[in-house]
Amino acid sequence: MAAAATMAAAARELMLRAGASDMEEEEGPLGSGPGLQEPLQLGELDISSDEFILDEVDVHIQANLEDELVKEALKTGVDLRHYSKQVELELQQIEQKSIRDYIQESENIASLHNQITACDAVLERMEQMLGAFQSDLSSISSEIRTLQEQSGAMNIRLRNRQAVRGKLGELVDGLIVPSVLITAILEAPVTEPRFLEQLQELDAKAAAVREQEGRGTAACADVRGILDRLRVKAVTKIREFILQKIYSFRKPMTNYQIPQTALLKYRFFYQFLLGNERATAKEIRDEYVETLSKIYLSYYRSYLGRLMKVQYEEVAEKDDLMGVEDTAKKGFFSKPSLRSRNTIFTLGTRGSVISPTELEAPILVPHTAQRGEQRYPFEALFRSQHYALLDNSCREYLFICEFFVVSGSAAHDLFHAVMGRTLGMTLKHLESYLTDCYDAIAVFLCIHIVLRFRNIAAKRDVPALDRYWEQVLALLWPRFELILEMNVQSVRSTDPQRLGGLDTRPHYITRRYAEFSSALVSINQTIPNERTMQLLGQLQVEVENFVLRVAAEFSSRKEQLVFLINNYDMMLGVLMERAADDSKEVESFQQLLNARTQEFIEELLSPPFGGLVAFVKEAEALIERGQAERLRGEEARVTQLIRGFGSSWKSSVESLSQDVMRSFTNFRNGTSIIQVLDMPHPAFILRTLPHQDKLDPLVFRCTETWDHFLLGFQNSLYHFPNFTTPHPSSLPPVKPSLSQYLVYSTLVIMS
């Protein structure tokens, strides 16, 4: 029944649609012909409107007439009424066919309708379920947000409570005084480890209570009394312990370094006093300063007094200067000097005191040296004294910095409070000794000892002695310069005529200078000082002038040159033993020695070969004036000179060799000069003549041809087997000079 009703309703709907279509076709002004497929578009034409305007009708008619279908229908002449009926008939047929199709499919349509209805019901229930689920999700989301907010708030409260708990825990832990701490402070000896541990705990609690009191914590009042009583007890025990250690320094023959080392193990005791009882800390520090100051002063005064007893008895005096003659007479009541003044200016083994091994060697023990009857120079005593001072000062400074917890200027002031009296006493003793000290080498060695000790103190990071080193150097440098100037003045004022008998051997004053200068130069090379080199330069100038003044006392030039060569050679030899080969002193005396040696050879050759030398000088003068042609007429003179030279040169050289050996005290120096003279042929003698290389080869024209001299030269060389004969092809292809000419002529004549 439902299906039939549905089909009837569908049929009625189709019929109504068909009737509406017929009414539209009948109301239309035009019919549809068989060839037209589309109806006329008259939808916009509204004749029932009160606003109808004929112009608009014309526009619509005109627009419809322009339609393609209308144009085609009008063009073919189709009958629109007939065409309309035909279309109506077709529509009826289609309608009937559609109704039959609907009737045939009515069951399927009814079934589809039922299914659609069921689906609608299912979808409706799903919609209701999804709506309920959506509302549930909304409520869950709000609950989750609520839970998150609650969780965040709880987390914040937890952190706050934990922070409060930590602060309260620290506060409570800092305020609680455990029974272990009380027992250790009251009963345990200060040397036990548990006393030190609980003392550190007590110091931490006292600091915590002071901090909390500053913040206004009321709970601090509950433990303040207990902590104060424990602090007083700890301070009392610590004070007694440290003072007992300090008093132990005062016992005779006590090694105070042992108690100092013991105190360093308990350096926290003083830190505790410094933080809790400053008055007691100051008392202990003042007691330490007073005790150690007296101990150091007593020790060094005693050590210094006993150390000076092992010094050499014979020391330099004000008359022991470089320019003082050995034969000088002293006063009637003066004690005769049994020592040689030369030893005062000699370094010897004294320079080893500044070597690395000797510099930090163990200090001297005076009573041991006295039993062994050993004596030492002042610089050795100075080194021992100041090495002991350096070692103890470094140890004391480091102890003060570590135990008394000071640094910088505070450590410097505390160190000088302890060592100031000792350093002052040492400076006064040094100043007193230097007043009568005339040993320049000893003072100079002391200067270099101080310079090295200052470097050692810097390496040990102990700046407290810097001022002391400067004060010591301020005493040593002026004294050294004064002694050096006194020696310079003594050499300057020395009168050669008062020195007694003179000979050509090296003078003792120059030997003193050589030893003294080499000693200072060798010491100064380690740590150069420009002021020292300037003073040595002044002394060298005065010694050179002194040597020239003494040489002027000899009547002959030959003796003067022998004296100068002996002295220059001696000074050069001594300097080269200790000073560097490129030092200014060595170079200066080497130049002087070479110049005087050359002059001596010329002076020595002048008597036996004076004529030959005179001819060479005359020839040089003519050549320099451009008058070399005048030498052509000197053939006879040259021949006579050469014959005389060839007959006497050998005996003359032997005589000169013997004279040289008698004149020079230095065998090596005399031998070198003899080697110059005692050559296997006379060519070298002529080479020693000055400026022989300037002689013009034109002199050769006064003799025979060059080939003749070559032949004679080769024949003459057979008489000198020790001389290596050069091959003629190796000789230069130029004409010989005058000296070569004379040599070759002599050899030809001798052959």
Helical percentage: over 70%
Annotation field: number of helices: 27
Summarize the biggest pleated sheet.
Answer: none
Provide the residue-averaged pLDDT: 75
Explain how this protein is built.
This protein is mostly helical. It has helices at 2-27, 54-65, 68-76, 80-104, 106-175, 179-187, 193-214, 220-248, 257-265, 267-276, 278-307, 356-359, 366-371, 378-403, 409-435, 440-459, 466-492, 508-524, 530-551, 557-578, 584-605, 610-624, 635-663, 667-677, 683-687, 706-716, 738-750. It is 70% helix and 0% strand. Mean pLDDT is 75; it is low at 1-47, 328-340 and 674-751. It is built from 27 helices and no strands.
Which key features would you list for this structure?
751 residues, mainly alpha, 70% helix, elongated, disordered N terminus
Provide a quick synopsis of the model.
This protein is mostly helical. The protein has helices spanning 2-27, 54-65, 68-76, 80-104, 106-175, 179-187, 193-214, 220-248, 257-265, 267-276, 278-307, 356-359, 366-371, 378-403, 409-435, 440-459, 466-492, 508-524, 530-551, 557-578, 584-605, 610-624, 635-663, 667-677, 683-687, 706-716, 738-750. The longest helix has 70 residues, at 106-175.
Strands, helices and their partners?
Blueprint: H1 2-27, H2 54-65, H3 68-76, H4 80-104, H5 106-175, H6 179-187, H7 193-214, H8 220-248, H9 257-265, H10 267-276, H11 278-307, H12 356-359, H13 366-371, H14 378-403, H15 409-435, H16 440-459, H17 466-492, H18 508-524, H19 530-551, H20 557-578, H21 584-605, H22 610-624, H23 635-663, H24 667-677, H25 683-687, H26 706-716, H27 738-750
